[in-house]
Amino acid sequence: PESGRNWINEKLIYTHGYGVTMNPVNGFTPEGLPTLLLSNMPVQSAAPGLAVSRPEIYFGELTNTDVYVKTRQQEFNYPQGDASSLTSYEGTGGIAVGGFLRRSLIALDRGDLTKLPFSDDVTADTRLLMRRNVVDRVRVLAPFLTLDPDPYIVIGDEGRLFWMMDAYTTAGTYPYSRHYRLNGAVVNYMRNSVKAVVDAYDGSVSLYVFDPGDPIITAYRGLFPSLFKDASAMSPLLRRHVRYPELMLELQAAVYGLYHMTDPATFYNREDLWTVASEVGMNDQREQTTQTMEPNFVLMKLPGEQEMEFVEILPFTPANRNNLIGWIAGRSDEPNYGTAVVYDFPKTRLVDGPLQIEAQIDQNPQLSAQLSLWNQQGSRVRRGSLIVIPVGRALLYAEAIYLQAERSPMPQLRLVVLALQDRLAYGPTFEAAMAGLFGGAASTLPTALPNAPAPPASTPAPAGAAAPAPPASTDVNTLIGEAARDLADYQRLTAEGRLGEAGQKLEALKGKLEQLQRQRR
Question: What is the rounded CA–CA span in Å between residue 208 and residue 213?
Fold first, then answer.
């Protein structure tokens, strides 16, 4: 509150953030809330081998002010019962305040002349932490790099928290190359040459070069040899968190949508222009809006590959049309890190795109009535991103639907919608939606919610789709049960960090889905 905004509180006591939460993207409690692997204060772990030893965040995305640490005042950590958990900074970050003359010079530089030189809480061991916003911190050290605006936090060596950030070398003067807008600048050359890592506790910055063949970063390394490190110097644990940059894939998709045309006449007439697919979103006025899809990270086996990979995908549609025409994938695992692949669909076959699947959801009478009902009476519907999942020779679409009360910021998962090219099903859980999609069972809405319409006797197929499947056989029900167990095992193994075994379970799940698809035919 304003009454508590004084120099001691803002500069000496409330100095840092605290902790992280972590959850698997596909794990939910029966109440529709995320299954948390890291939660609470102090931080508690629900997964073996996953722990945070330094939860204090002195350098982050919202730390935009200077603070003084190692003073006579203890710092606020988190509320604890009737009292508060307090701490004192133990790191080496920042600048020593020193004696009166040095303190006065620092106060003059930081605009703190009326308080800092005369405070009894400040000692010679006190340290000033400044430039604590991680994006600004890296930008000051390397102003010649273009930074990704969305750093992500990871747990690194010894349970410490680190911010990872993609940095690019860019130029607008590359010969015979088209210009594109990037973060307000006009560029026609861009390479993700550097990964920046910032320690959330002491603010130390490391810049690792991941593209030594880039001539621009080579020139800067010659000017500032001590500023950069080789990618091989990054610890193996941090290296596992390196991923294909989102900003890079978005710009590459925009370029590829035009320049995938290699025939001169086709290119000149723009006959085969692609755009990134769109999906349905919801604004603050509860109105549906159409928005461009953002890159989605998935763990999957790419077509024709033998190993599971962590990839980032974006689907394409033809310009001014909604059917799916292809998708681009950025690869994050060695030895293919930093490469992108594109898969396109035959033009002789119409493949439903994200907006067409969204239209099927909106046109389903039971779903439409329920979503309209939820979107009033003090609540609002939040539709998750529509995920396109290649399964064998088919595509499986999945969308989570959440309900958020106006007085609570915590959305709850209420429905999972699954769709194939010719059929749509939904249910309160993934397993229920699977049963409706492959087993011929009736799709249902959550019965625990008030005012829910009665579920239909069977899920009507969308317009133009095949007739509903006949009642499920025992084999189909068995496959659905096994698929549900594979999904549960995948969630558990992912939470335990056993990604190799988790990948095997994911492959087993995809195998079950392919069998179910064949049985439906």
Answer: 13
Q: CB neighbours of 329 closer than 8 A, spacing ≥ 6?
A: 302, 311, 312, 313, 340, 341, 342, 343
Assign 59 to helix, strand or coil. Answer: coil
CA torsion angle for 54, 55, 60, 63 (degrees, to 10)?
-110
d(CA 398, CA 86): 45
- Assess contact for 262 and 348: CB atoms under 8 A: no
| Tokens describing residue 117 | 């030189």
Report the C-alpha dihedral over residues 84, 85, 87, 93, rounded to 10 degrees: -100
Confidence of residue 233 (pLDDT cuts 50, 70, 90): very high
Cβ pair 150, 121 in contact under 8 A: no
SS3 content of the chain, % helix, strand, coil (to 5): 30, 30, 45
Indicate the SS3 state at residue 397.
strand
Distance between CA 269 and CA 162 in Å, rounded? 49
Q: How many residues does the chain have?
A: 521
Please tell me the distance from the alpha carbon of residue 385 to that of residue 261, in angstroms, as a whole number.
Answer: 29
Cβ–Cβ under 8 Å, residues 464 and 424: no
Q: Among candidates 203, 224, 62, which has minimal Cα distance to 138? A: 203
192 contacts 338 by C-beta, under 8 angstroms: yes
Measured distance CA(207)–CA(243) in Å, rounded: 15
Other Cβ atoms less than 10 A from the Cβ of 379: the count is: 19
- Say what the alpha-carbon torsion angle 70, 72, 77, 83 is, to the nearest 10 degrees: 170
pLDDT band (50, 70, 90) for residue 451: very low
Contacts of 436 (CB under 8 A, 6+ apart): 418, 425, 426, 427, 442, 443, 444, 459
Would you state the structure tokens that stand for residue 283, as one six-digit string? 């604004």
Token pair, residue 516, equals 């179910």
Q: Which of 220, 216, 224 is nearest to 191 (CA)?
A: 216
Residues 382-434 pLDDT 10s: 888 888 877 766 788 899 989 888 777 788 898 999 988 778 888 888 888 88
Q: What is the DSSP string of 35-53?
A: --SEETTTTEESSTT---S
In whole angstroms, give the CA distance from residue 500 to residue 489: 12
Q: Which long-range contacts (CB under 8 A, 24 or more apart) does 47-51 make?
A: 47/495, 47/496, 47/497, 48/496, 49/496, 49/497, 50/22, 50/155, 50/497, 51/159
The answer to whether residues 330 and 166 touch, using CB atoms and an 8 Å cutoff, is no
Burial (Cβ within 10 Å: 0-12, 13-18, ≥19) of residue 90: exposed
Structure tokens at 189: 């050359």
**Does the pTM of the predicted model rise above 0.85?**
no
pLDDT reported for residue 500: 64
Beta bridge partners of 275: 317
